[in-house]
Amino acid sequence: MSVFGPPEAARTLQAIVAPLQDLGILGAVATRNRRLGGTDSTSFSQAGLPGIGISQDPIEYFTGTWHTNVDTYERILPEDAKAAACVVAATVYRLAMQEQMLPRFAPGDIPPPPGRDAAPVTTGGAPPPGP
Fold it and tell me: Can you give the residue ranges of every domain in the chain?
């Protein structure tokens, strides 16, 4: 897994997924990447929230069937799908039950979105100009 946020966010996520290693989850890393595309979590990262991306085993992922008319449910590996569903469900539940939110970048530390000038983040007054 990767999480947009400071190293503390990755450590929190790592502690949550550590008991799930037998299901194939290897851990968590922090990222400062705010590019769009690649996964659904990037819209959260664009908004400055801790978007969590989950990388998958590349078995049959880029084999010429990916996102084509032959990319059908029959190609799903049932045991992999079950394990992934368990990992996601357990992770979401544990995140929801925490006393504190997943750590986020402090306003002065958040990386600017790509393609924009790095305008300073203010802590009061009028919000910074939009896109």
Answer: 2-97
